[in-house]
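Re: weekly structure request thread

Next one in the queue (108 aa):
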Amino acid sequence: MAHTSSSPLPLAQLTRVMRSKNAGPLCLTIDVFFHERAGFDRALQSPALSPSAVAALYGLAPDQVQRRDWPEVLAIKFAMPRRHCAGSPGDGDVYGAQQHAPLLEVQV
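Done, posted below.
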């Protein structure tokens, strides 16, 4: 599934797996695994996936989002605080399993 176009594409088109999960009751991680190196490299260069851009997407301060790039497995991992403690009143996703959805249509 080669994507050589320079036109922006939704992140979901470049990925093989995108998932989110709790990393403790107060932290969330989002894992983004790519089909191929070209998509991974494209995402690495995209301002739309900078920590500050992801923070804005989730309504967080820029310093609250950490990004770790994993070229060995063509993956990017984001870590950020949860809006509500897992299982507390107001928490609509106790496992943090649906929190990657805002990234699906991000154009890279």
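The two ends are 16 Å apart (CA to CA). The chain has a mean pLDDT of 94.
Next request, please.
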